[in-house]
Amino acid sequence: RAHFVSTLVALRRADDPQPLVAVGRWPGEILHAPRGAGGFGYDPLMGIPELGRSVAELDAATKNAHSHRARAAAQMVTLLREVWGL
């Protein structure tokens, strides 16, 4: 098993006593051989069981909707609204 992980931190100022931290985890599995031609880095070696494909086999819209970055961004939006009232 493996995960792609993305962390976002929001500060109102350098000494912000209440920074917001959002972590997006995209679970998958390490494949035995690369699959797909898209993406970069480890994308051909990261299989996403819930989608039945490697990250390199996903179109941009699907990747952007499910990725660790998308999950961290969605969590950050929630935190900004709930904690900071934005």
Describe this structure in words.
The chain is 26% helix and 29% strand. The model has no long low-confidence stretch (mean pLDDT 95). A 4-stranded antiparallel beta sheet has the order 1-2-3-4. It has 86 residues and is of the alpha+beta class. The protein is built from 2 helices and 4 strands. It has helices at residues 60-66, 68-82; strands at residues 2-10, 20-30, 46-48, 53-54.
Care to give the gist of this entry?
This protein is an alpha+beta fold.
How many helical elements? 2
Q: For the largest beta sheet, what order do the strands appear in spatially?
A: 1-2-3-4
Residues in helices, as a percent range: 25-40%
Order of helices and strands: EEEEHH
Residue runs with pLDDT of under 50 for 5 or more positions: none
Average pLDDT figure: 95
Query: Largest sheet, if any?
Result: 4 strands, antiparallel
Q: What structural class is derived from the secondary structure elements? A: alpha+beta
Rg for CA atoms = 16 Å
* Beta-strand residue percentage: 25-35%
- Termini separation (Å)? 37 Å
User: Could you give the count of β-strands?
Assistant: 4
Shape: elongated
Descriptive tags:
86 residues; elongated; alpha+beta; 4-stranded antiparallel β-sheet; 4 strands
Set down the secondary structure blueprint:
Blueprint: E1 2-10, E2 20-30, E3 46-48, E4 53-54, H1 60-66, H2 68-82
Antiparallel strand pairs: 1-2, 2-3, 3-4
